[in-house]
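The instructor's notes for this session suggest beginning with a concrete chain rather than abstract definitions. Hand out the sequence below and ask the class to guess, before any prediction is shown, which regions might be ordered.
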Amino acid sequence: MNSRKIDLAEIRAITSKGYTEPYVTSLYFIRYFSPIFSALLVRWRVSANFVTIVSLIFALAGSFLQASNDLFLPFLGAIFLLVYNILDHIDGEVARANFHFYGKTSGLGGSYFDALVHYFYTPVLFLGIGIAAFSQTENELGLWAGLVTGMWLSAYGQSASFRVMMDKIFKDQEIPTEFSGIYQHDKVNWKEAPRKQKIRFLFREIFSNQGQIFILLACTAFELWVSASYSLRFMYLYAMAIIGLIQMFRVSYKFYKVLERIK
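After discussion, reveal the predicted structure:
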């Protein structure tokens, strides 16, 4: 296999987003070591799409394990989800580095596939936790909470295609006024942002695709450590369901107002 020496510092320079990382866990944790693996994969000419496929396997495996009420299996599932999240960072780094060093691109299909994984595993994850809640308590509330949260996160195909399409259309361009209500990336600079904005983004991260992995890892690790179940995963599920109900109505109304404005 032909390989070339890939300098780690160069990989970091190519792939780093600096203090504009959307999540604080990315900035202060994952981005510290993910470029190390990315440098090896780029050297070995591994494609970003292959990394995405592996990440999907870990994401689904981790999600299915959350349906168990065993103390160890949900923790193992959370570890798998963390591996998925790290690989989710790595595939983007590999894509950018492969283009920089070899002129290779994964194209629009790669971006779509990566976005699709985000929206595919989360409904499975929360439905799995809902099944575990029902199995343990025999209360249908757990199933309903899993269903509601899954509904909130289940429009993965449309969301992924919409997101990638808009990213491509409006990349480095001014967003038309009629789309401003639905297409906007609220960004933060973790170094320069005021404290209130940082707190708001931290709270949002707790209920994000990335934040949920670290919350579940903390919950399952604690319960495994004390050898007792305090149903922490289920409490988080119920919180997500409440937020999901609010968000579904809020977003539906916002989209309706945007459509009114366009017409």
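Then share the key points. The longest helix spans residues 72-102. The chain has a mean pLDDT of 83.
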